[in-house]
């Protein structure tokens, strides 16, 4: 099995430096970090008394919620496509 090239990049999320290693491109990793940072700042602006741990957990909960909603929509569209193919 071929080993995938791993990218190591340092990103800033909510004022903290994180070294992230992954098989995605550095631009993809930066994009993910930027979205997490933006979401944390958005939640923090609405809840300024949250400590960083609670803020991180709420950010994760929001991200998973958005993922589930997108997955449900994807599955629904996939079912529609399958139904149309079957009806043709």
UniProtKB/TrEMBL annotation:
Subcellular localization: Cytoplasm
Protein name: Cell division protein ZapA
Single GO cellular component term: cytoplasm
Gene designation per UniProt: zapA
Chain segments annotated as coiled-coil in the UniProt record: 60-87
Protein purpose: Activator of cell division through the inhibition of FtsZ GTPase activity, therefore promoting FtsZ assembly into bundles of protofilaments necessary for the formation of the division Z ring. It is recruited early at mid-cell but it is not essential for cell division.
Main location: cytoplasm
Keywords: Cell cycle, Cell division, Coiled coil, Cytoplasm, Septation
Source species: Anoxybacteroides rupiense
Record keyword Transmembrane helix present: no
GO biological process: division septum assembly
Subunit structure: Homodimer. Interacts with FtsZ.
């Amino acid at each position: 099995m071929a080993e995938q090239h791993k990218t190591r990049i340092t990103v800033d999320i909510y004022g903290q430096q994180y070294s992230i290693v992954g098989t995605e491109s550095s631009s993809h990793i930066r994009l993910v970090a930027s979205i997490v940072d933006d979401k944390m700042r958005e939640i923090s602006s609405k809840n300024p008394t949250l400590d960083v741990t609670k803020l991180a957990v709420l950010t994760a909960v929001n991200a998973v919620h958005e993922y589930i909603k997108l997955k449900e929509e994807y599955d629904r569209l996939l079912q529609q496509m399958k139904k149309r193919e079957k009806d043709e």
